[in-house]
Amino acid sequence: MSQQPFSRPGAYDLSALKRPASSSTPAGPPVAQSGGQPAGQSASTAGGGTAYSVSADEQNFQAVLEASMTAPVLLVFFSPSRMPESAQLAADMQTLSDEFEGRFLVGLVDVEAVPQIAQAMQIPSIPFVVAVVDGRPMPLFQDVAPIDQLRPALTQVAQQLTTQGITGRHQPRSTVVVDEEGVPAADPRYAAAQDALEEGDIDRAVAEYQKLVDANPADAEAAAGLAMAKLLQRTQGVDLQAARRAAADAPDDLDAQIMVADLDMLGGHVEDAFARLVEVVRRTSGDERTKARDHLVTLFGAVGNDDPRVLRGRQNLASALF
Question: Are residues 199 and 298 in the same domain?
Fold first, then answer.
């Protein structure tokens, strides 16, 4: 790794981090091997982990580096006793990691607790921040800076990475955040969409969830929220009994069958909705079969792919298709 000093956040040359046209073995110094623990499971030494930060140790460091294959990782090397200001820098980077909503994963390395990591990464001084993209490290800056300087600096880094086609985002860590009373706190990313739903503004909820999905297509929770919001949007003002009569009178009317399936979903009859569309897939072909299948897959997403009803529904769909 280059030993070039970076005195303060400012103008960065990140051209060396541009994604190669073809994959190759990540370059960089040797690192400790993972003991199998997923990145993001240990609490932060700098004051508790957040959705997009993790305390790095020997067990999870390799996994933290591997997370850079999804989106950039910023490694923050600090020492609470030798330089308390560096611990404040680490805490500020944690705060900013949540503000950037997965654009970076911040890996916090307390060099007193895990000196071997700093040695392996050839860290010349404390504090030190290293950007890692696709497993390849590059020094970013080397000094304490207030959060008001860090924020625009990281914004600049994100913009440069975007121009180089590096646009991935990390998923939030599985750690559940609780409030002072121990109640799980709502994820602020979904607040605007959820507020819209509570206010009955379905169109705005769809728009808010769509923004989240556009920003991070891998966000399964946002995708599920979007699917459910669109379900509410499609069924607004529809009379259930009239829809059921229409579907019974015209069993080959695909739109009528889809509408009843949607209404069954809203009524909590998830398996009935799945079964109806599986049967439509079974007895149709061509464009109609494709439309029914795609709509069923959308309903799977609204429920959640880990739900046992979805697992059974997928099995039934596969049987109907093949």
Answer: yes
Cβ–Cβ under 8 Å, residues 288 and 246: no
Rounded Cα–Cα distance for residues 229 and 216 (Å)? 17
CATH number for the domain that contains residue 240: 1.25.40
- The residue whose two tokens read 């966000």 is 219
What is the per-residue pLDDT for 98? Answer: 85
Could you list the residue range(s) of the whole structural domain that residue 104 is in? 15-163
For 199-235, what is each residue's pLDDT tens digit? 889 999 999 999 988 887 767 778 888 988 999 999 9
In a domain, 311, yes or no: yes
Q: Is 278 within a domain?
A: yes
Q: Which two tokens stand for residue 4?
A: 């070039």
Q: Which residues contact 54 (CB under 8 A, 6 or more apart)?
A: 39, 40, 41, 42, 44, 60, 64, 105, 106, 107, 108, 173
- CA-to-CA dists, residue 212 to 34, 168, 190, 228, angstroms: 32, 13, 8, 14
Residues 125, 142: contact at Cβ < 8 Å?
A: yes
Is residue 168, in this structure, part of any structural domain at all? no
Q: In terms of Cα–Cα distance, which of 108, 112, 107, 56 is closest to 81?
A: 112
Sheet with 136-141, edge to edge strand ranges: 53-55, 105-110, 73-78, 128-133, 136-141
* Cα(169)–Cα(216) distance, integer angstroms: 6
Rounded to two decimals, what is the model's pTM? Answer: 0.47
